[in-house]
Amino acid sequence: MSAPQTLTLLELLNRANDAYPDGFLAEYYDAKTGERRQGGGDSLARFIVAELSETFDPGAAHAAQLEEAGNALNHAVDDLERVIQALS
């Protein structure tokens, strides 16, 4: 039986960047290493890169890594929805 397929941080960030408008997440991470960088101009993109980087577990299986990334971003969506509701 083979070991579970893993996902690198760079692969995860690139996958998210492919879905982000204008691929602007790439402004906030190194295209070769996946390490965060300063970037500028889009605080949501910066937040997404930070959230994905901080919750990334290099030892987790591919599917588990995608699930954790989705959970982290869904939690952020819930927080934003509560703030929007409070402002309405």
Describe the model:
- The protein has 88 residues and is mainly α.
- The chain has one domain (9-87).
- The protein starts with 8 loop residues before the first helix and ends with a helix.
- It is globular.
- The protein has three helices and no strands.
- The model has no long low-confidence stretch (mean pLDDT 93).
The main β sheet shows up as: none
Helix content: 55-70%
Instruction: Note the run of SSEs as H and E.
Output: HHH
Kindly give the count of domains: 1
Computed over alpha carbons, the radius of gyration is 14 Å
Oligomeric state of shown chains: single chain
Q: Report how far apart the termini are.
A: 54 Å
User: Helix count?
Assistant: 3
Low-confidence stretches: none
Class by SSE composition = mainly alpha
The backbone outline, from C-alpha atoms, is globular
Tell me the total number of β-strands: 0
Strand content of the residues, in percent? under 5%
